[in-house]
């Protein structure tokens, strides 16, 4: 087992169209090193060569967190309904 110090991951599976499964993962780094380099390295190890999308805080207010989503194009899509779609 190879741990990266001060790095945690939260993972969940996503139900996709056709019964397939994707993943969403949130990586959070709390160490003293430059978070960009630690997170870039961790993401490369996590995804290997599989297609993925990485979401980064647009304002870079939180450079210690990245969100990785696989198979985003296969997610179930429907028109947005502000009365139905809530967290």
What does this structure look like?
The protein is α+β, with helices and mostly antiparallel strands and 87 residues long. It is 15% helix and 30% strand. The protein contains 1 helix and 4 strands. It has a 4-stranded antiparallel beta sheet with strand order 1-2-4-3, covered by helices on one side. β1 and β2 form a beta hairpin. The longest helix has 13 residues, at 35-47. The radius of gyration is 15 Å and the shape is globular. The relative contact order is 0.24. The model has no long low-confidence stretch (mean pLDDT 92).
Provide a quick synopsis of the model.
With about 90 residues, this protein is an alpha+beta fold.
Gross morphology: globular
Estimate percent helicity. Answer: 10-25%
Mean pLDDT: 92
In terms of DSSP E residues, the strand content is 25-35%
Nearest-angstrom radius of gyration? 15 Å
DSSP helical segment count:
1
| Structural class determined from secondary elements | alpha+beta
Strand order within the widest sheet? Answer: 1-2-4-3
Distance between the termini: 35 Å
Order of helices and strands: EEHEE
Oligomer: single chain
Largest sheet, in brief, is: 4 strands, antiparallel
Number of strands: 4
Task: Note poorly predicted spans.
Answer: none
């Amino acid at each position: 087992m190879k741990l990266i110090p001060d790095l945690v991951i939260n993972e969940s599976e996503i139900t996709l169209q056709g019964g397939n499964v994707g993943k969403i993962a949130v990586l959070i780094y709390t160490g003293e090193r430059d978070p960009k380099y630690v997170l870039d390295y961790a993401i490369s190890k996590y995804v290997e060569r599989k297609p993925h999308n990485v979401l980064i805080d647009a304002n870079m207010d939180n450079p210690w967190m990245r969100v990785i989503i696989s198979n985003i194009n296969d997610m179930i899509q429907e028109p947005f309904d502000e009365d139905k779609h809530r967290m």
